[in-house]
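Structure, all two chains, one model.
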Amino acid sequence: MNPNDVFITFPELLVWFPLLSGLIIFFLNKENQVKKLALTSSFITVAIVVASLFFTDKKYFNFNNVSYFWLPSLGSSFALMYDGMGRMLCLLTSLAFPLAFLSSYNKSYTKPNSFYGLMLLMQSGLIGVFCAMDALVFYFFWELALIPAYFLSSRWGGERRIQTTFKFFVYTFVGSLLMLIGIIYVYLHTPDLTFSLHSFTNTRLPVGKEEITFWLFFIAFAIKMPVFPFHTWQPDAYEQATPSVTMILSGVMVKMGVFALIRWLIPVFPYASQIYANFIIILAVIGMVYASCIAWMQDDLKRLVAYSSIAHIGLMCAAVFARDESGMKGVMIQMFNHGINVIGLWIVVDLIERIWGTRKISELGGLANASPVLTIFMVVIALANLALPLTNAFVGEFLMFNGLFSHGIWTTAIALFCIILVAIYTLNMVRRVFYGETKRENVLSLSTIDSNVKTALVIVVLIILVLGVFPKPMFELTQDSVDVFMSKVKGLF
Amino acid sequence: MIAIILSALWGVVMMFSGIFFKRKSTAGIIAVLGIVALIIVSLLEYHSYLYLPLDIKGMLTFSAFSQVFNLVAFTCTLIYFLLNASEFEEVGNDVYEYYALIFFILSGICIVTSFNTLLMLFLGIEIISIPLYILAGSDKRNLKSNEASLKYFLMGSFSTGIMLMGIVFLYGATGTFHIQGMHLGTEKPAPMVAIGLVLLLAAMSFKVSAAPFHFWAPDVYDGSPTIFTSLMATIIKVASFVAFLRLFDTAFGKMHVQWQILAAIIAAATLFIGNITAVFQQSVKRMLSYSSIAQAGFMMLSIFSLNTFAKEGIILYSAAYSLASIGSFAVLVKMKDYSFEGFNGLRKTNPFLALMNTIFLLSLTGIPLSAGFIAKYYMLIGTVKNGHYFWLAIFAVLMAAISAIYYFRLIQAMYFKEGNAEVKPLSTTYKAALLITAGLIIFIGAFPNVLINALYN
C-alpha cells in the first residue's frame, strides 16, 4: 500500500465515525438496538485507534495529518493531527466509552436513543479536541464536547442535577469565552494570520501582553482540569451526573485541560509560563492538600472519588509546569492511567450504590463478606489510586515527582505529603466499606453484577496491572510529544 | 432602487387588496408573493441584470454591502411572514393594512441602508418609524398595546427631534448634507461638528435601543403584539444598525479616535443593562426584549471598532440574530403561557418545537457551529483588532456568559423540568419555515463565507 495514497485519515475517521453513529442512534427507537449499536460503535472506535497504533512511523504522515480549507476568510482550516499524545488520549477516550456502556448495560435510561446518541456526539467532540491543530477548530470541538455533556448531565442524574450542571456549564463557558479572546489576540499577532498551531507557537506577543493572554488561556484550562480555586463545580457535577457520564467527565474530559496545557498553553506562551510556573505549581499543590483533606472527611463515596480526582489532576498540572522531561513523561502516562483508574472507581461505586442502595460510607460495612469478588476488584483499583508500586499509577506519579523535584524541593515535599493523605483516605474508605461488621443488607441481589460489568472491571484491572509492570509501550507512544514540548521549553534557555 | 419603489408600491397594492378580497388568509399569500418578488428583483439588481436609470442626484448609493443587507432583510421578512401568517389574523381585523405597513417599512429599510445624504437618512428613519407606531398599537382593545404605541410615539418623536438637531448642526458646520462631502478630518472636531455628532449618536442609539437610550424598549416590546415585537426587535433593529454604521463610518470615520470612547461606553452599558436585567425576567417575552437590548450591545461593538471585521460582522450578525430571534419569537407566539413555567416539559408535548427553539437559543448564546457564534466572533475580533480598550472585548464575553443564564433557563424549562406546556396547533408551513430557519442558522454557522464573499462580488 502506498503510504501517500490515502482515502481518509485516522483523525478524520475517529471524529466522523462516532458523530455519524451518534446521529443514527438518535433516530432509533428500540432500546435494545440502541444499546447494541452504541456498544458496537464504541468497540469499532477502539479498533480504529488500535489499528492506528501501527501507523506511527513518519512515512505514514498522510495517514495521520489532514487539513482542508474551511473558513478561508478567517484564516482557519480544518486541520487535524494525530501525534503521540493525541493517540494516547484517543485510546483513552475510545476505551472509556465501551467501559461506560458496559458497566451500565443493564440499566435502562428514559429515552435511551438520546442518551447514547449524545454520548457518542461527546466522544466525537473529545477526539476532535485531542486532534485539533488549528486554534479555531480546537475551540469548536472544545465547545462541542461541552454541549452534549451539558444535556447528558442535566437530563439524567440526581435530584439537584439541573442546578449543578448549569454551574458546571457556566464555569466552563466563561473559561472558553475568555480563551476565545486569547485565541483572537494571538491570531492577530501571528506572522501569517492563520490559526494553525505552528504559527501560534511561532508568534511572539508584545511584552506585557503575553502575560494577560496567558491568563486568558490558563483560566479556561484551569476550570476544565479543575485546579484550585476553580474547582468548585466539580464535586457537585460528578455527584449529580449519572455514573456513565461521570466516568466520561472525570476520566476523559478533565484530560482536555491537562492536554491543552501541554499542547496549547506552554508552547504558545513559553515566557509567561516561565514567569507564572511557580505560582501555578503552588496553587496546584494547595489544591492537592486541600482536596485530599476534604476527601478524607467525605462520607459520600462519589464525593470522595471526586475530591481524590482533584488531587491527582493537581499533581499533573504541577508536573506540567515544572517543565522537566521525566516529569512530562510521567504526565503523559498518568493522563492515561488516571483515566482508567478513576473509571474503575466509578464502576465499583456505582455497583455499591445499586446493590446496597446507598453510597454513604457510614452506612456501609462488611461488603467483603457479601461479595469477595467485588472487593478484590475494588482493592486493586484503590491501590492503583494511591499509586502503589506494580500498579500503573506508580510509574507516572514517580516520574512526576521526579520532575517536580527538579523544580523545587519544598513544593515537592508538600506534594509528597499528599501521597500519605491519599493512602489514608483510600485505605480508610476500603476498610470501612468492605471490612468490619455488616451494617446493611443488599437491596438488590448480587447477581446484578452481570457479565458486562465484570468484563469492564476485568479490562480495567488488566490495564492497571499490565501497565504497572510494563509501561514501556506508553512511553514509546508519547515520546515524540514529550520531545516537541521539551524543545519548545528548552528554546528559552 | 427598484426594491424601494416596488416595496412602496406593493404596500399600496396590499391596502387595495383589502377592499377586493374579503378573506383574511389571502393577505398572507399576497404578502409572500410581494416579498418573493422583492427578493428576486434585488437579486437581479445585485447581479446587475436590472438597472433603473433614474437620476437621484447622488442621494442614494447602492453598494454591495447595502444590497446584501437588503437581501438578508428580505429573506428574514419572508421567513417572518411564513412563520406568523396565522398570527396576523388574530391581532385584529385590518390584516391587509398590517402587511401594507410592513411593506412601507421595508421601503424605509432600503433607504436607510443606502442613504448618501442626511436628509435621506432622516426620511428613511421616519418611513420606518411611523408605521411602527401604528403596528405597536394595533391591538386596539389592549391597554398595554395602546401604552406601548403612545410611549413609542412620544419617545420616538423626541429622538427624531434630536436627530434633526444634529443634522442641522452638521449642516451648519460643513455646509452640506452629503455624508461623503463633509470631509471631516482626523483632528479634533469643531464644536458645532462635535455637538452634531453627539446628537446623532444619541438619536441613533435610541433607534437601536442602546443604553442609556433604551428605556422605551422593554415596555414597547412587551406591550406590542408579539409578532410586531418580533419585527421591531430584529429586522428593524439591524437595519438601524446598518444605517448607524454607514453614517458613522462615512461621515465620522476619520475622527474615529475622537469619539470611540463614547461608542465603547454605550456598548458596555448596553451589554451590562440588557444582560443583567434579562436574567431577572419571569416572562419569556420580556426576557427576549431585554435579550434584544443585550444583543444590540454586541452589535454596538461594530460601531466601536469600525473596521472590515465590523462591516462583515454586522451583516453576519444581522442574519444570525434576526433568524434566531424571529424563530424564537415564532415559537413563543405558539405557546399558551408566556412565562418560563409555560415552557415546562415542551420536550414531551412538542419535541419538534423544543428542538428548534433550542437551536435558536444556542445560536443567540453563541455556541459554535451556529450562526450566532460566527457573528459574535466577528464582533470580538473587530474589537480586539481595533487595538484600543482591550477590556471591552473581555467585558463583552463575560456578558455573553451571563446571557447563557437566561437562554439556558428556557432550555432547562423545555427539556429538564416536568410540566405540560400547552401549544397552539401548528400548520405545515409553519413547521417547514421553522426547519428552514434552523437550517439556515447552522448553514451560516458552518459556512459564513457564503455571506462574506457576497460582499465582495
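Chain A has a mean pLDDT of 85.
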